[in-house]
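Forwarding the complex inputs:
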Amino acid sequence: MLTIGLTHYLILAAFMFCCGLYVMTIKRNAVGILIGVELILNAASLNLVAFSRYKTGLLDGQIVALFVIVLAAAEAAIAIAIFVNYYNNLATIDVDRGDSLNG
Amino acid sequence: MNGDLFTLLAPELIVIGGAVLALLLGLGASPGARSAPRALALLSVFAAFLVTWYYGPSPAKPLELAGMRFDSLAYYIRLIALSVGALVLLVHWHLPHPAERGDVFAMILFSLAGIMLTSLANDLVLLFLTIELVSIPTYILVSIGRSDIRAQEAGLKYFFLGTLSAALLVYGFSFLYGAAGTTNLSRMQLSPAGGFVTIGLLLAFAGVAFKIAAAPFHVYAADVYQGAAAPVTGLLGFFPKVAGFVALIKLLFLMQPSDLLTAGWNMPGAAFVFLWVVAAATMTLGNVLGLMQTNVKRMLAYSSIAHSGYMLVALLAGPVASGGPLRDGLSAMLFYIVVYGIMNLGAFAVLALIQARGRPAEELDDLAGLGRREPLAALALAICVFSLMGLPPTAGFFAKVYVFSAAISNGAAGWHGLSLIVLAVIGLINSAIAAGYYLRIVATCYLREPVAEPIAEPRTAGIRLGLLGCCIAILVIGVWPGGLLYMSRLPFYDLSAPPAVATHSNAQSPEPAETTEQVYAKEMNS
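Prediction (whole assembly, two chains):
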C-alpha cells in the first residue's frame, strides 16, 4: 500500500505553484490573477506544513504557514480596494484595458 | 543597550505609534486635526532617530533576541532609513489632499518601520513579514491621491508584481526551511550542494529581484514610476530597494563560513553566476532602455534599475579582510544605497515642484528653459542628476568609486576575481552610456528654449526644504565622504568580532527554547 510521504506533498505544492503561475499569466480578470497569487502562497504554506511534519517534527513551520495565511488575507483586502478604484475609472477590472502606460 | 525588548524596539514602536495616531487624526473632522498628521509623522521620525542614535551601535557581540538580531547593520539601516525617511516626508508635504494626509503619512511611516524591522529580522518568517510591511503600504501609496487612470493602472500592476514576488519569496523560504530544519537565520546551516537549498535560494533571489527592480524582473518599474505621483516615485526608489538589499545581504550571509573574513566572501557557483548575470543585465538593460525615453520619470525609472545593478556588483565583491574601505564591497553597497536614495528623491522632488501646462512636469519638453525660469530648481536638478551620473564633487562620484574599486581590487583567485573585474568594466561602460540621458536632462533645462513655460508651484515650502536637504546631503557627502563611509563600515567591523551565538540575555534560564523543542521532537518521533 502506498504511504503518503514528504515527496507527495512537495509534488502537490509544486503543481499548485505551477497552476498559480499559469493562472496569473492567462487570466485577464484582476480577481482571477489574485486567485493565481493565492495558489502560489498556498503552495508555500503546504510546503511549510509538510516540512514541519516530516522533516523537523516541530510546530515552527505550521506557525509560519499561519502567518502566510494572515498575509494573504491582508493582501486580498488591499487588492479589493485597488480593484474598486480601478473599476471606478475604467468600469471594468480587465487588466488589458489599462494600457495608457507603455514605452 | 541590553535586555528588554521594549527598550530595544523603541525606535520602531515610536514610528508605528506615530503611524497609528496619524491614521486616526486623519479621520478627524476639523481642519486642525487633518493637518496634524504631517507634523506628527515628522516628529515621530525625529524621535526615533534620536533614540537610535542614543543607543549607538551594538556592543562587540550582536544581541540576538526573539527572532531579531541587534547588530551594526541594523543600526546603520535604521539611521539611514530614518534620515532619508524625514526627507521623504518633507517631499510629500504638499502632495495629498488634506483628507488623505492621514492615510498617506501613516503609510509612509508603516513602510519605514518595515525597513527598520527588516534590518533586525533574524528569522525567515520575520524577514518575509517585514519585507511585506515595507511593500504593502507602497501599493496603497501608488494608487491613492491621484484619481487619474494612469495611477490606478500603475497601482494595479505594482500590486500584482509585488504580490507575485512575495509569493515567490515565501515559496523559496519554505525550501530553505525544509533544508535547514529551522527558521532562525543564525542557526541555519546550509550546504550549498543541496537541491532544496539551490531551489530555495533561486526562488528567494527572484522574489528579492522584484523588490530591487533587477532584470529580468524590472519590467514593471517604468510604468509604475510614470503612473505614480512624483514624490511617491522618489520613495519607491528607496524603501523597497533597501528592504530588498537587506534581505539579499541576509540571504548571502547564510552561505558564509563562520570565519568569514579569513576564509573570504563565499559565493557558491550557482548563486555567483546567477547574481553576476542579473547584475550585468540589470545595468545594461536599465541604461540602454533609459536612452530611448523622452519622459523624465521613465528615464529616472530606468536609471533606478541600472543603479540596482551597480549595487549588485558591490554585493558580489563582498567584504575582504584587509585593504580598507576601497576593497570592502559590503560597505560600498551600504554607502551607495543611501546616496542613491537621496539623489533619486531630489530629482523627483524637482519634478513634483515644477508645473508645466498646468500639471506636474513629466516630459523632457516640460523642463525646457527651466534654467532661465526657475534657476534654483534647475540647479537642484543639475546637482541630483550629476550625482546620479557620478561626477565629482557630488556624493554619486564616491559611491561609484567605492563600488567599482571593490570589484576590481577584490583579488579573488581564479575566474571568480576575473569575472568581477569584467563586471566592473561592464559597469564603467554603462556609466558612460548613462551619461547620454542624464546630460540630456540637464541640457534641456539650460540650453533649450522654453516650450511649456515651467514654473515652480508657489507655497510649497515643504518640498523646497526637502529638496534643499537632498542637495546639501549630496554635496556634503561629495566633499567629505568619510563620515558616511565610517558608518557604512560598522557592519564590517561586526564581522571581525567573533561570530555571535544566540544569547537569550533576558531569559531566566539559559536555553529554555532548546529543551522544549527537544522534548517535543522526542514526542513526535515516538
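The two ends of chain B are 43 Å apart (CA to CA).
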